[in-house]
Amino acid sequence: MKTNTITVTSTEDGGDVVMVMKRKKFPWWILLFLLPLILLIPIKRELRVHFIQQGSSISVAKAAADVNYPLTSTFGSKTIVPHHDTTDTDGRIIITGIKEPLWYKLFGGQGDSVFVSCGNGCYSLKNAGYKYREFPTDDFKDVYLGAVASVETLKVADADDNEPLPDAAVQIIRTVDGNTTSGNTKSDVAGQFDIADMPLCGTVKVVASHEGYENDTLEASLFDISNMTDYERTLHLKPLKGCVKVIVKNLKTKTLLADATVTLEINGASRTMKTNTNGVGVGMFDSLRISSTLKFTASKSGYADTTLSGYTVQQFMTLDEEKRTMYLRPLTKSLVFINTDGSAPLSGVKNMIYKNGTLIATEYSNSKGEFIVGDIGENDKISIDATKTGYNSNNTKVKNKLLSQLNTQDSRTIPLTKIEVPKPTPPPNNNKQDDLKGESGDLRVNLQWYCRTDLDLHVIDPCGNEIYFSKRKATCQGGTGILDLDANALIGTTTRPQENIYWLKPTPGTYTIKVVCFKWRERSQNPISYNVSIVDKNGRVDKRGTIASGQSITLKHTVN
Length: 560
Known about the structure:
This protein is mainly β. It is elongated and about 165 Å long.
């Protein structure tokens, strides 16, 4: 213990009085008990994020943003706190009120990761990780968003019957951030083609063309195309049409033949007309597609049939009269055969005619079911194999028959019977939901797949609200949809992931369901399998399919 000596002089006797004061030493060991308490003092911190378009200084304003940060308690337990917000007009969000103990900030808290995501339909960033130390104390952390890429499948179809048009020439003109590029492709056997490798905010102009059709053009942003119906994203090409005139003459006399039957086979169907009965011998087919290929069969009782083929409508319209003339050869020994469907005439039957075992002709029945077999000798053996799509063939009615055995019309009538196609058995009403994770309601859409690839489930409600990872909740006329499962985003990937969106009371209308391949994590480039389960008051429907890297699949479901 330290001491201090103080000398005081007395005024009475001149003597000195000595005073001794003792000073105690501060007990520093008390600090050993106070230090832990000081380290537990909560310290406030803020997270400030500024979202910017990749490769520019343009802020992403009014965009859905998520920040997931670890919050540490007084004694070290950590909780991941999700923060959902919308960026302001400057593309910024500020998270305040974060309190953590002083020891966490001093001894390691700066190394923990914060995960941010953001998207506005045109630009997106999904679950990017940053360390706490990378966030400035009094400034904003700049986070750059890349353009949202998408693969959209479009279709080319015939405007008259909406059937797909394969091998159509397609020009794709892309415009992204003012830069324009052009490319060419062709529609596949299903009339489909893809637009890939461009952001949703880019504008695309598609021009489809096909021989014999008028061009059609579609111009829109890729984001708008992604929300179109199948009909809206189809380019409908209108067929060019014309008429053709056919002339029928006697081969020997070169005179016009009236009342001859001309059958036109075109696009898998047949049409029949009669040449004029006034002796002109001319008939006409109209409203034909310019690009279609023609095959004419002319017939008349007592004459051998003749055919004319190999021209498109457009080519036939330019032929001179001689090339449009069909000559029928008079027969001295000819027989009329009839194809029937029960008791009714059956047209368009393919009749392969054999004489003495050798194929000599193939004739198609006309609108009366008739066709002619000519130049038959007394000792010739005739066989006919009659076939038509959708009917059982008949090669037994006329088989190795002599002329004398074909002397009645009944002996020359070849019936065909329709093939009965069994009706498919309807699927069972499967209401089980045991295998589905997440909440259920009066409407539920669940996506399952079977690997670590990141698929995303999007549902657009009847009001146009899109529910997905960046907007997990939306209300439409009182019906609220919620995404409560988002799997394989970045942390905790699994080989049995599921995503789930549900409505307790869904709004009636059409719901558009999209399965989007966001991040491919497979070594193989082969498509992966998925299953979309839709459960409503009518039961459960499973829609299975496959999806490849960068692909998007669209489904529809109507709630009554």
